[in-house]
Amino acid sequence: MSDPAVLCENLRFAYVKDRPVLDIERLEIARGERVFLFGPSGSGKTTLLGILSGVLTQFEGKVDVLGREIAKLSGSERDAFRGAHLGYIFQLFNLIPYLTVVENITLPCRLHAERRKALGGVPLEEAAKAAAAKLGIRHLLAQKVTSLSVGQQQRVAAARALVGAPALIIADEPTSSLDYDHREKFLELLFDSCKEAKATILFVSHDRSLMHLFDRQLDLAVINRAQTVATAE
Amino acid sequence: MVLLSLAYHSLKNRKLTTTLTVFSIALSIALLIGVENVRVGARQSFEGTISQTDLIVGARGGSLQLLLYSVFRIGQATNNITYESYLKFKNHPAVEWTIPYSLGDSHRGFRVVGTDENFYKHLRYRRDRSLSFASGHEPRGVFDVALGADVARALNYKTGDKVVITHGVASAAGRGIQDHNDKPFTVCGVLNKTSTPVDRSLYIQLEGISAVHIDWADGAPPMPGEEVPAEKITKDTVKIDQITSFLLRNKRRIDTLRVQREINTFSEEPLQAILPGVTLQELWRTIGYAEDALTVVTFFVIVVGLLGMLVSLYTSLNERRREMAILRAIGAGPGKIISLLVFESFLLTVAGCVLGVGLIYGASFLFQPVVEEHFGLYIPVQAPTPTGLIYLGAVLAASLLIGFIPAWKAYRNTLSDGLTPKL
Amino acid sequence: MRIALVFLLAVSLGAQTRQRKAHEHGSAKVNIAFESVKSAPKGVIEFEAPAESITGFEHEAKSAADKAKQTAALTTLKARFAEMVVFPAAAACKITNKSAKVEAEDHGHDKKSKTKQEQHSEVHAEFDVQCAKPLTGAVLTFGFAKVFPKIHDADVALIAGDLQLSVEVKTGKETLRIEAK
């Protein structure tokens, strides 16, 4: 378990040839670390997340996530890896609209046997209840997600990201649609749950009012050399 | 199974389009199976118009013509056959029974058939059904007439009514060539409905046909005042000279070919004997083209139904881009995205098939009596025919294939969208 | 039935013209009759074809060469009939020839056409068939053209108890299934 949660070396990525969006010499995130990644719009935050979660693959350089070299995995291995070991929280619309809260929370475990194994024999429903209880949404389990407030939806998304104890949680501006009070509360709940699961958090936001709550703050504009080139142009 | 349940919930979530799609598939399936059932029913009805008859015998001519006037009462015989020849085969050692028909007269557009008691005793239709009387009895006297069910209903006749027979086949408007006014018949009975051409004729004895023509000479009616009064005519005073055709049943089926050859080479008179089953099939094969055309149309209806499904799934994809991104984020690969959409089209089609089959059987069950009553078409409510099952299987297979089109589109979307759909 | 009747009327004219002429070169007629197709069915088969399609000519065989040709053709017909009307092997049917002869067609009623070219003769043959197993649901296949390449068309009628079936064999791929449709 000495592998870092994330290790990028000489990472370069371009959607269009010769127009790099990302150019990172080195990025390392230790296991259990809570990292706040910020940067202006267009600084390549979403692209970096796409690479780390194994969806964007046409990059150069070395990217290890949880000790696995992403580039060496096949497409389906990457999908399975993401499903089993990563929790992903979007800014908005995190949930499958036609499933109930509990069905949304348990979906990753139902799709991936490995993630389910991580529950250690705890029945799915119990695990969902436990995660929901921690995030204060236990009473919502049977509801349709369309009837929830935005804040409640984000907590359901967090519960889904956390169930089955994935080692890395990636959150892409999960709080930007919440008002300030709810943001802190949401983060508190997220941190508590992660601490218990010993999960690493990579939290992306442009809202620096939250950055003091994290172990480490990364300015992508600084570590991404491509961006400086682009702005210089 | 997870994907199947996802597909199910996803469809359930889009209630309106799902319902409409399922319904349109169901209607096209119902039409497909319905047409197939009508086809089989029509064929069975058609081939069931005459059963347990080995040969139909008439004057030499077209075999279809003989079948048409003897069984369907369509068209006319160009020649009659002598009663003498008929008796020869009636009393032939290999022959079990014969049913003679004497045609040529009519009543208000319905044909009048002269026959004998064997008609009521031996005629079979739809494999083994025999004739029976709804009221009254078969003709016993020379001037008795029994009515087919449709005749009685259309003309509102009942036993005891008087019926005047027209010479020749007249239209319903009554422009008969010559009415046999002087010799009215009395309705002695009404047959039960058979849904075969039997329902559309009137039946008298062979002697009755002779009786109305007893005083005719060279095909012309008697001069006024020279008519032979009906009271003077009894079975013994009339002589039967000729009949039009007859049905024949052998004691053993294997003799059929021998008897047929004997009839066809009969030296005293040019006769011909046809195998009704074979001629019916020949006729059906000709009609079969219309049947094929109907099937082709039905297939296009199915195609339209499936295209409707394709359109509804395909257009839903844009609003589902976010959903696909979420699925990818929690680790569903392209394969699973494709399966999800293929499952959706499959589920829609299965639901459509089940509903469609349910619809058509419900409708068949409800409307069977009505259809039989009004169209004379008996459509059996039976398990789907092998062809029907093949159709269903083909539709399901087609739905799987069609499902790949939106699935492929969704797959392309997820590849270009990654985790951040462009909305 | 009224619908069917309308159909009938519409097609009966067309169908009438389709009827086969009595003597059409290349056209054979086969009639098969079984009293029943259950347990060890026993039946008869009649075969009829213009002599031209079997022996190659229709005039009276007077020369030694013609006679030899005719005999050879009839021998082939007798010996290889089981290849022309093929019962399923499972039924273990045995076909035996009863008779086979060439008959001049009687044209007495049409004296004008009785020129040499118009003289017709027909081959008639009869066979017995005895099967060991029931024929219910059995599928018959046909190979007329294999034995006599000049036969390109055959009307096969089959009586099996109360079932009367028929098939027109043209491509040779047609089959006849012994069961009610």
The sequence of SSEs of chain C as H and E is HEEHHHEEEEHEEE
Instruction: Walk across the major sheet of chain A and give the strand order.
Output: 6-7-8-3-9
Q: Rg of chain A, please?
A: 17 Å
- Report low-confidence residues of chain C grouped into runs of 5 or more: 11-21, 108-117
- Poorly predicted runs of 5 or more residues of chain A: 228-233
Domain module count of chain C: 1
How many individual β-strands of chain A? 9
Count, helices of chain C: 5
Count the domains of chain A.
Answer: 1
Overall form of chain C: elongated
Give a count of the beta strands of chain C, DSSP E runs of length 2 or more: 9
What is the CA-based Rg of chain C, rounded?
Answer: 18 Å
Largest sheet of chain A, if any?
5 strands, parallel
Instruction: Name the shape of chain A in a single word.
Output: globular
- Describe the main β-sheet of chain C briefly: 6 strands, mixed
So, CATH architecture of chain A?
3-Layer(aba) Sandwich
Concise overview:
The complex is a heterotrimer of chains A (233), B (423) and C (181). Chain B has 423 residues and is of the alpha+beta class. Chain B has 12 helices and 16 strands.
Could you explain the architecture of this structure?
The complex is a heterotrimer of chains A (233), B (423) and C (181). Chain A is of the alpha/beta class. Chain A has a single domain (6-232), classed as P-loop containing nucleotide triphosphate hydrolases (Rossmann fold). Helices cover 38% and strands 21% of the residues of chain A. Chain B has helices at residues 2-13, 15-47, 63-72, 83-90, 117-122, 149-155, 206-212, 256-264, 276-319, 321-329, 334-375, 386-417; strands at residues 55-59, 81-82, 95-107, 110-115, 124-125, 129-130, 133-136, 144-147, 162-163, 166-167, 178-179, 185-191, 201-205, 242-243, 245-250, 271-274. Chain B is built from 12 helices and 16 strands. The mean pLDDT of chain B is 86. Chain C has one domain (23-177). In chain C, 25% of the residues lie in helices and 35% in strands. In chain C, strands 4-5-2-1-7-8 form a 6-stranded mixed beta sheet. Chain C has a 3-stranded antiparallel beta sheet with strand order 3-6-9. In chain C, strand 1 and strand 2 form a beta hairpin. Chain C starts with a helix and ends with a strand.
